[in-house]
Amino acid sequence: MSDNPEARFASDAYFLGPKSENAAWVRGEFQAILDHWFDWRRSLFTDDPEAISPERRLSTEFLRERERLGQAVRILREKLCAEVPTFTPRYVGHMVSEVSLPALLGHFATLLHNPNNTSRDVARVGGVIEDEAIAMLAGMVGYDPALAQGHFTGGGTVANFEAVWRARYRMDHCLSLALQGYESRGERFDAFEAAHIGWDAFEAQRAESGAIEAELRGCSGVLGNPFDYGERLTRATGRPWRGPVLITPGNKHFSWRKAANVFGLGEEAFWNAPLDAQGRFDLGGLDALIARARDEGRPVLAIVSVAGTTEAGEIDPVDGVCDRLDALRAEGIDIWHHVDAAYGGFFCSMLGGAAEHCLEPGRVRALGAIARADSVTLDPHKLGYVPYACGAFLTRDVRGYVASSFQAPYIDRAATNDKWACTLEGSRTASGAAATWLTGRSIGFGPGRFGDMLRSTIETRMAFQSAIAAAIPDARFLPADSNILCFSLARPGEALSQSNQRTGEVFTRLQGDPAFSVSRTVMSAQSYDALMQAHVASWDGEYDSDQLVLLRCVFMNPFWSNPDVERALLPAFIETLQTHLG
Ligand SMILES: *Cc1c(COP(=O)(O)O)cnc(C)c1O
């Protein structure tokens, strides 16, 4: 059994509790927020007349309308009782769990004021809170909060798009300069090399060339006609222009395919790096892909590594990717590195404290290396325990935050109060930022409470793994880096296809049983071949299918760190599983 008193302190005080144990004082906090809001409205423009008179509020017509609304609210309330009960520790299905009290209160309080963080004109306070919350997240992942830039998004998908958007602008700046050099002075260039000179060399070469803004704009692929641009690049590089590529590991989230589609890359340009037997980014494979892009004269728009894969919570060797990119940088090849830490970024809160010891040393190094990447995606609405919809996109420095063609110097652009110029989304809520801010101000994003709480979720995964292994010898576990447990059910020697069949059937039966919620995931040999080989070998099975069906449990609920909860519910979970094994 896990023993983590610090984590319990955090979960007990910062969550409502599965039985609404903290209801009394939470009601008081909500009440105080409402009263304060009512008073704030009354305190402004005190001489203005009341718009809804007491007599009107007592009229029959008015009361009828009030009743109509009350009725509709009751209907909604009743409907919501059929909603998935993600608050209970029995819910270990997808990447969602109970939200924290600071997040809920921060979200609610801000909702009442309804700021629009698109611009300071309509979010005088919301925008400031957003900047402060971004600085907190920057500190958590190891960026210098004074240099890092970022904003909240509608989720991880949009945050990943933000990275591609910026990487595309950076590439376009560099290629425009090279194209301008060719067209005005006949300087032939290699697109791979020209696209990766990095900001310092770009500034220096631009100054040296004396190219003015209008000339660069005339050579921009973002601004110009894409077909003309292709022909011009073909002439300038002496080889057919085939566009950039985006390198992602095979364990990436579906949002990357969407990004390739949205940014017009063509799925051909969406290169999958192979995975090792652990299901993590294979660095040898990365080298080969970079070499191929270089060979083919195609820029690498960005390399993505994943900290906390959606399927299994695996943490890629981010440090290894950084080391390789640093070595290339020494040769003058500066490739954008984005870390998709939508799920696992909050594990950075464990670093530097006792909490980190429940991670493998290699995973600690990987999480620590996010600080070296150009940009990162975080999803506070996952392991930040913040309500939907709340993602975040951050860059290590202001130059990486540029999201413009050549109209305005990027420093001015980033410093502006109008975020809309730097965000894919237009109108944006301040609620997610405030939920994150209030979490940072109370629980904090350090190893002390938050990190201990996340450590307890990993210990819960370990406790489940031991208990399942002891009770069900046919359970075959995937390697696990964090708080997600994936396993299949296979008898010694049997074929993968048979195991898939059994695991799938058990999942269907579990789905029909309200006692616990788990999820199912299917891995394909196209991405996970090495892992699948090792997995099937663990029961001497026959590798006869290109798919691997798995039961998946995501342990986010903080109350599993309570020994009473674990004592009561873990055996019940094992029993449920055994019942459905057939
Ligand atoms: C969840 C997730 C996303 C997408 O985030 P949304 O908030 O669902 O848009 C992207 N990448 C990873 C690794 C994720 O786990």
TrEMBL record:
| Sorted UniProt keywords | Lyase, Pyridoxal phosphate
The cofactors it requires, by name, are: pyridoxal 5'-phosphate
Offer one Pfam family short name for this entry: Pyridoxal_deC
Instruction: Point out residues bearing the modification N6-(pyridoxal phosphate)lysine.
Output: K382
GO terms under biological process: carboxylic acid metabolic process
Sample GO molecular function, one term: pyridoxal phosphate binding
Gene3D superfamilies xref list: Type I PLP-dependent aspartate aminotransferase-like (Major domain)
Q: Which domain of life is it from?
A: Bacteria
Does the record carry Nuclease as a key word? no
Q: Which InterPro entries match?
A: GrpII_AminoAcid_Decarb, PyrdxlP-dep_de-COase, PyrdxlP-dep_Trfase, PyrdxlP-dep_Trfase_major, Pyridoxal-P_BS
Q: Which family does it belong to?
A: Belongs to the group II decarboxylase family.
Protein name per its UniProtKB record:
Pyridoxal-dependent decarboxylase conserved domain-containing protein
Species of provenance: Maricaulis salignorans
Q: Write the lineage as a comma-separated list.
A: Bacteria, Pseudomonadati, Pseudomonadota, Alphaproteobacteria, Maricaulales
